[in-house]
Amino acid sequence: MEIIREVALLRRRVEEEKQCGRSVGLVPTMGALHAGHVSLIDRARKENDIVVVSVFVNPTQFNNPEDLRTYPRTEEADCEKMINAGVDIAFIPSVEEVYPEPDTREFNLGPVAEVMEGAMRPGHFNGVAQIVSKLFAMVQPHRAYFGEKDFQQIAVIRRMVQLEDFDLEIIDCPIMRENDGLAMSSRNVRLTPSQRAIAPAIHKTLVASLDFAKSHTIAETKQYVIDEINAQPEMEVEYYEIVDSLTMQPIANWSDSDCPVGCITVYCGQVRLIDNIKYTK
Ligand code: PAF
């Protein structure tokens, strides 16, 4: 595996591979890699000749400086995982390399970015659009891979791709879970043992809500999920919205969407966890 830290070298190496007719898959990450990331890499490995993984904790998408400061950084372990997963190029740049000058671009991301994470974390999605558009411009991959845990993020990235006319395929990949159902996340390492023990209640409640939803309205189902999770010690729901999976807009009735998805954010102590579930009809 080649470790590349400079944009110019990255561009040159990827261009050389493309000149030889090889397809390129990109897996953007912020490091602290876990089995969820490895599943994205595995999929990219199957579908492309060359796999590039970026490892970059992007400051412009953090609206909370403490969250940025404490975000786990584990480069050595990440490299080992990438080597084992068969990554060809690990792009691990510095902040100065990615942002030689402040990125002042404002993306017109529209309604998909205004609700849920967009409402709770002002500027977050614009920062995601900034870094992902830079990575797409640097690598110009044929395909890019994102996990469905960040369900709304994928909708925002699709919108950015449309705005910027990028010629590539966005591939969304299923959430990877621990054996007890907790969605894999780099933030899970910050949970205390007692918080880690109760955190699976999020997924369990969402699964139970599938059955509950069969005989209840959207409002009742939302309330059920919020009450069940808030009843757990140290857990507080920040939001639970049931939205259309394409527009990300909250729906009032089950018949308002062909594919409703429930998106949740829960504070487990100080740790902000997100998850989602599809209410297929
Ligand atoms: O999902 C993430 O880890 C990040 O938001 C991403 C897409 C790598 C951009 O920094």
Outline: globular
Bound molecules: pantoate
Whole-Å distance between the termini?
Answer: 44 Å
Oligomer: single chain
Unreliable residue stretches: none
Percent in helix: 25-40%
Structural class: alpha/beta
> What does the largest sheet look like?
6 strands, parallel
Radius of gyration: 19 Å
Q: Provide the residue-averaged pLDDT.
A: 97
Strand order of the largest sheet: 1-4-3-2-5-6
Per DSSP E runs of 2 or more residues, the count of β-strands stands at 9
Please state roughly what percent of the residues sit in beta strands, choosing from under 5%, 5-15%, 15-25%, 25-35%, 35-45% or over 45%.
Answer: 15-25%
Number of helices: 11
Listing every helix as H and every strand as E from the N terminus to the C terminus, the arrangement reads EHEHEHHEHHHEHEHHHEEE
Commentary on this structure:
The protein is α/β, with parallel strands linked by helices and 281 residues long. It is 40% helix and 20% strand. It contains eleven helices and nine strands. The strands form two sheets. The chain has a six-stranded parallel sheet, with helices on both faces. The chain has a three-stranded antiparallel sheet with strand order 7-8-9, with helices on one face. Strand 5 (143-147), helix 8 (151-164) and strand 6 form a beta-alpha-beta unit. The longest helix has 16 residues, at 124-139. The radius of gyration is 19 Å and the shape is globular. The chain starts with a strand and ends with a strand. Pantoate (PAF) is lined by residues 28-30, 58, 61, 128, 131-132, 150, 153.
